[in-house]
Amino acid sequence: MITRQSIIDAHERIRPYVHRTPVITSQSIDDIAGCKIFFKCENLQKVGAFKARGAMNAALSLSEEERKKGIATHSSGNHAQAIARAGKVLGVKSYIVMPRTAPAIKKKGVQGYGGEIFECEPTLEARESTLADVIKKTGAHEIHPFNNYDVITGQATTAKELFEEQNNLDVIIAPVGGGGLLSGTAMATKYFSPSTLVYAAEPEGADDAYRAMQSGKIEKSQANSIADGLLTALGEKNFPIIKENVKAVITVSDQEIIEAMRLIWERMKLIVEPSGAVPLAAVLKSKEEFAGKKVGVIFSGGNVDLEKVTKLFIQ
């Protein structure tokens, strides 16, 4: 379903609507990690996250007839903002189901793009049932946060850009929640840098991808981590791609995530949200695995609830 050409086409399709984000290095972090890291800064992307890519590609891939009644999704935040923005860009309504516990900064972002929010309980079942009700009432077209091939293909453009700037990476590592970014990264690596190994990074408190790689089937997420963007289980379209193309999933504790986030803020002067810091936390935890290698790390987002994160740092 996802080909080399479809990724190239997606990249051209979304080019006018997204940033080509910078790739940044940090000698001090390299010294600490024991490897050379190239950070793909999707925290500087439109809506503050890579999600702008997949949402825009999926929305642009719909026909005018499909789009005219609006677009809809469920999301804890970054995809929600991305769909709301896509709706605004295309001049159609957007309907967003968000758990009531979603970060305030992400709800404000959705509202700022004109998205209509429908709150629900913080469970996958509540999100899906609420979205089904919204779609039934509005006739809007669903764009799933990750279990959608157009979304996956859009997310693949992140790694494609990284490989265009650094074509000799030994490793690329992305965070994993539902698997949209990771499966897209895996497919981009397969087509544009086949010698590069793909790793995933995941919170210990939401380690369903790690368990799924062991069991060979999709596992339920425990959803217990400060990395709020990574608390959902893998999608059925994402898991086969991940199982076939990802070497390993590395899990990290919330404390390790906080320490990595602090390091990024202090050494790189970049604001990265907890989910975005998870890959660096994994590299720092597994120094022997990556020693002396050239490593691509994707900072997936930078939408931080400053009040909440400040408290984490103080603790």
Structure at a glance:
InterPro entries: Ser/Thr_deHydtase_PyrdxlP-BS (IPR000634), TrpB-like_PALP (IPR001926), TrpB-like_PALP_sf (IPR036052). Residues 15-301 form the Tryptophan synthase beta chain-like PALP domain. This protein is an alpha/beta fold and 315 residues long.
Topology:
Layout (H helix, E strand, L loop, with lengths): L3 H11 L8 E2 L2 H7 L2 E6 L9 H11 L2 H4 L3 E4 L3 H13 L3 E6 L4 H9 L3 E5 L3 H15 L2 E2 L6 H17 L5 E5 L4 H13 L4 E7 L4 H8 L23 H7 L2 E5 L1 H15 L5 H12 L1 H4 L3 E6 L6 H9 L1
Helix pairs in contact: 1-3, 1-8, 3-5, 3-8, 5-6, 8-9, 9-11, 12-13
Cofactor: Ca(2+); pyridoxal 5'-phosphate; Mn(2+); Mg(2+)
Organism: Chryseosolibacter indicus
Keywords: Magnesium, Pyridoxal phosphate
Beta content: 15-25%
Low-confidence stretches: none
Question: Given the helix and strand composition, which structural class is it?
Answer: alpha/beta
CATH class of the largest domain: Alpha Beta
**How would a crystallographer describe the biggest sheet?**
6 strands, mixed
Mean pLDDT, all residues: 94
Q: Could you tell me how far the N terminus lies from the C terminus, measured between alpha carbons in angstroms?
A: 46 Å
User: What's the SSE pattern?
Assistant: HEHEHHEHEHEHEHEHEHHEHHHEH
Number of distinct helices: 15
Helix content: 40-55%
What's the CATH architecture of the largest domain? 3-Layer(aba) Sandwich
| Count of strand segments | 10
Give me the side-by-side strand order of the main sheet.
1-2-10-7-8-9
- Give the total of domains: 2
The name of the CATH topology of the largest domain is Rossmann fold
> What would you call the shape?
globular
Computed over alpha carbons, the radius of gyration is: 18 Å
